[in-house]
Design a protein that fits this description.
Helix content: 10-25%
Structural class: alpha+beta
CATH class of the domain at 23-97: Alpha Beta
Order of helices and strands: HEEHEHEEEHEEHEEEEEHEEEEEHEHHE
Mean pLDDT: 73
CATH superfamily of the domain at 23-97: TGF-beta binding (TB) domain
Strand content: 15-25%
Shape: elongated
Radius of gyration: 28 Å
CATH topology of the domain at 23-97: Extracellular Matrix Fibrillin
Largest sheet: 4 strands, antiparallel
Number of strands: 20
Strand order of the largest sheet: 2-1-3-4
CATH architecture of the domain at 23-97: Alpha-Beta Complex
Length: 382
């Protein structure tokens, strides 16, 4: 609605401008040869074409169009403005966006997707993107980004897995599972020389000098760790005997009886469509549903693995296929709703920094390969 109001305002501004010799500059030319989407009014063809470097820009010689005629062309006509003259007859002066190159098609210059990709990258085989989708190669992923204006990164090489068990991360990276039990390769640091010493208790009942030291322990050993609560570990600790941050709730680990500070207001992401199997052996629609029940019961329930629970996990032949179908369906839904167009980038660094405690892996300062896709946070371990 705001865009429509803005368009009307610009039209009236153009109408009220003093009339000079010139025409109208248009954003694109339709297949019928008519001009569409007005950019500027009362400009010469030279001015229009020198300012607009896109290959689809056109110009029409109507120097004194009436307000009614402009309104008709912009909002009522399915064809657009007649007598449209294209600005560019070749790729000489055309400037294309990143990963696109100008090519002549049917005598008209067009920007087509041509991302830089070497033969070596093509030969490396399939990759798993940060949207948990398999691509034939990194080149195919880059081409998808160019076509749909997304910013998906390579998470790891090979087909997408449903756990860290068979994931081989590039050098210096570690595999962690998100709240849905799906794996991601991340980079974390073991240097805590500048860390402010505030002791924390880990879910392994060990006290660490700071959250950085706990994080470094994970990086060195790969053992899954999370902060149970701030301060040193206490013998026979209970929820009344510890103090959680104001945005956390105290839950009890049913196995160790240890109190855990957990976030009971998790932010759900587009991948919340993925069902998870909880450590209580119950299937949940998504991670948020599981966390909601956990908070209601005041008992810590974590993701055992992605997908629905079954008696013998490795005996379930259709589980991976089911997960892939869900991810594929979600991807198609995003395309239909226009999510492949411009959308805000969500930094995982911010998410990690804001969720240091309970139910989330402790990586507030790490560099994450998954900048774009929009998972809630990294998995609670234990």
């Amino acid at each position: 609605m705001r865009e429509k109001i803005s368009d009307f305002i610009w039209i009236w501004i153009f109408i009220l401008q003093p009339i000079v010799e010139g025409g109208i500059c248009w954003q694109s030319i339709s297949k019928t040869g008519n001009c569409r989407k007005m950019l500027m009014i009362n400009v010469t063809k030279e001015q229009c074409c020198s300012l607009q470097k896109e290959p689809s820009v056109g110009w029409s010689p109507q120097s004194t169009p009436s307000s009614g005629l402009i309104f008709f062309w912009e909002y009522l006509s399915t064809k657009g403005a007649p007598v449209c003259r294209k600005c560019h007859n070749s790729c000489k002066d055309v400037i294309c966006p990143r990963d696109k190159k100008c090519r002549m098609k049917n005598g008209i210059p067009k920007c087509v997707c041509k991302p830089k990709c070497s033969s070596i990258e093509r030969s490396k085989g399939p990759v798993c993107g940060t949207d948990m989708t398999k691509y034939k190669s990194r080149c195919h992923l880059l081409r998808y980004n160019c076509r749909y204006n997304t910013d998906i990164k390579v998470d790891y090489y090979g087909k997408c897995k449903d756990s860290c068990q068979f994931v081989k991360c590039p050098g210096g990276r570690f595999c962690v599972e998100d709240q849905n039990g799906l794996p991601h390769c991340i980079v974390c640091s073991t240097d805590c020389s500048l860390a402010h010493k505030e002791p924390v208790c880990g879910n392994n009942l060990q006290t660490y000098e700071s959250s950085c030291h706990l994080r470094a322990e994970f990086c060195r050993t790969g053992n899954p760790l999370q902060i149970a609560y701030p301060g040193p570990c206490k013998v026979n600790a209970t929820c009344p005997s510890i103090r959680c941050p104001y945005f956390m709730e105290c839950l009890v680990n049913p196995v160790t009886k240890q109190p855990i500070c957990a976030n009971c207001r998790p932010q759900c992401s587009p991948l919340s469509v993925v069902p998870v199997c909880g450590t209580d052996g119950i299937s949940y629609k998504n991670y948020c549903t599981m966390r909601k029940k956990s908070c209601e019961m005041r008992v810590l329930i974590q993701t055992k693995y992605s997908g629905r629970c079954h008696k013998k996990r490795h005996g379930c032949k259709g589980c991976k296929r089911h997960l892939k179908r869900l991810l594929r369906r979600r991807r198609k839904q995003r395309r239909k709703k226009g999510h492949h167009k411009k959308h805000k980038k969500v930094s995982h660094i911010k998410q990690f920094k804001s969720k240091i405690y309970g139910g989330y892996t402790i990586f507030p300062n790490m560099i994450v390969t998954t900048e774009k896709y929009k998972l809630d946070s990294y998995k609670e371990f234990g």
